[in-house]
Amino acid sequence: MDLGPGWIAVALGRDVEPGVAVPAIVGGREIVLWRTESGVLQAWVDRCPHRGMRLSLGFVRGESLSCLYHGWRYGADGGCIGIPAHPDLVPPRTITATTYPVIEAAGLIWLALGDAAGTPPAPDGAWTGAISVTIDRDAASVAAALDDAAGRFAAVQPVLPGRARLHVAVADGGDAIAACLWAEDVRRRLEIPLLAAAE
Ligand code: FES
């Protein structure tokens, strides 16, 4: 999938807590989202530069992410800072995980696969992520099915051809339960015609 430049919502902010790494797929690309224990958000290609293990299976230790396989440790700029089998070696700077620009806005986590100019297309103010729903329709179809409501903000993540994630946030004091019910209703409205056609 060719997504071009710009910010893409990929998760609720609350779903990537400090000290945790989680996988995501954006336009077919496998990403690891993780947060250092001090709270700095990261988005990297989900592949260890050593032998290709998924970094989302690894462990956050302080401000670094360690690979599950051989324990190579990567700092917050993606560079390798430790190789357990060679404790006296200073890893060369060429051993670096691929990183993406990442930011939080309106209760959601956004990354840019290319040009990260500007800011995410999100409203100002205090927002809290309410729900993420996977929908078996392409991102454009999901985006076309959204309707506006006061106190609710939604963004669509292209995952794979024919699959998207809908992320919904509510303004502080907003009705999170109503937002969750709305997201589920969007999913049903889009998927039920597909199921009926397949019968
Ligand atoms: S594959 Fe990650 S440390 Fe070896």
Automatic annotation (TrEMBL):
One of its GO terms (molecular function) is 2 iron, 2 sulfur cluster binding. InterPro entries: ARHD_Rieske_2Fe_2S (IPR015881), Cholesterol_7-desaturase (IPR050584), Rieske_2Fe-2S (IPR017941), Rieske_2Fe-2S_sf (IPR036922). Residues 8-111 form the Rieske domain. Keywords: 2Fe-2S, Iron, Iron-sulfur, Metal-binding, Oxidoreductase. It holds the Pfam family Rieske. Signal peptide: none annotated. PANTHER family: 3-KETOSTEROID-9-ALPHA-MONOOXYGENASE, OXYGENASE COMPONENT, IRON-SULFUR DOMAIN CONTAINING PROTEIN. This is Rieske (2Fe-2S) protein. It comes from Segnochrobactrum spirostomi.
